[in-house]
Specification:
Elements (H helix, E strand, L loop, with lengths): L3 H8 L3 E8 L6 E7 L3 H12 L5 E8 L11 H9 L19
Antiparallel strand pairs: 1-2, 1-3
Length: 102
C-alpha cells in the first residue's frame, strides 16, 4: 500500500512536457505532461504512456520550467513589429524573368 510520503515525493518531481512525432508526421506534437525524477525516466514513461500503440517514431521531453512562451493575450503587440517590415515579405523583391523556378 502506498504511503502519503511516497505521493508527496512523486509530486516534488519536475513536470515534463511530452512531444511525439508520429510515423506519418514531420513535426513533433505536444501530447501531454508527466512528472518524473529525471529526463531518462521521463522518456521511458512518455514512451509507455503516449506511444502504447506503436504510433511514434520520436519523443521529446522538456522540463516545463525550461519552456518560455509568449502569452496569447499579448499576441497583437508581440507580433506587430514584423508586420510593418515589408522587406520580410517576398513580394517586396522584384524577381528577374531569367530566374527560373523560384
Amino acid at each position: 500500500m502506498e504511503t502519503g510520503s511516497g505521493e508527496r515525493k512523486r509530486r516534488s518531481w519536475p513536470l515534463y512536457e511530452v512531444f511525439v512525432r508520429g510515423k506519418r508526421g514531420l513535426n513533433h506534437v505536444h501530447v501531454g505532461s508527466l512528472h518524473a525524477p529525471d529526463s531518462e525516466m521521463a522518456l521511458r514513461n512518455a514512451r509507455d504512456l503516449y506511444t502504447r500503440r506503436n504510433e511514434g517514431v520520436s519523443i521529446w521531453v522538456v522540463r516545463a520550467e525550461d519552456i518560455a512562451a509568449s502569452s496569447p493575450d499579448e499576441k497583437d503587440p508581440f507580433f506587430a513589429p514584423a508586420g510593418d517590415k515589408i522587406y520580410r515579405h517576398p513580394t517586396f523583391y522584384a524577381i528577374p524573368e531569367e530566374v527560373p523556378h523560384l
